[in-house]
Amino acid sequence: MNKLLVLTVLLSLLAVSTEGFRMPRQVTDEEQGPLTMISETIKSYYSNAVDTVNGYVDAIKGLKIEEKAKNLYTDTTTILGTYSGIFQDQLYHLVYNQQ
């Protein structure tokens, strides 16, 4: 009975000690966990959104909208200045020529 007990204890110690020497498993791309997959998906959505916005900004800069807006403002103020001067002259003649 002593031999059986000693053999059982040694065998159990051998089983416990060999479990500690297991090599860690390397995760491949196909074996990603759910959190890794979710974070990768979020990163790809974010990078796609940033690339799209950068494309829109580059397209807007390519259209030279700022220059067109400045030109529109200048033309509008010139035209409005001319017509407001004409309106003031007409109003002046309407009011002061009634006498």
List how many beta strands DSSP finds: 0
What's the overall geometry? rod-shaped
Number of helices: 3
Structural class: mainly alpha
Strand content: under 5%
- Given as residue ranges, the uncertain stretches (5+ residues, pLDDT < 50) are none
Compute the average pLDDT.
81
As a whole number of angstroms, the C-alpha radius of gyration is 42 Å
Helix and strand sequence: HHH
Helix content estimate: over 70%
First and last CA, distance: 140 Å
Major sheet attributes: none
In terms of quaternary structure, what is this?
single chain
Which keywords apply here?
99 residues, mainly alpha, 80% helix, rod-shaped
Walkthrough of the structure:
This protein is rod-shaped. 80% of the residues lie in helices and 0% in strands. The chain has 99 residues and is an all-alpha fold. The chain is built from three helices and no strands. The model has no long low-confidence stretch (mean pLDDT 81).
In short:
This protein is 80% helix and 0% strand. The chain is mainly α.
SSE topology:
Blueprint: H1 2-19, H2 34-62, H3 65-96
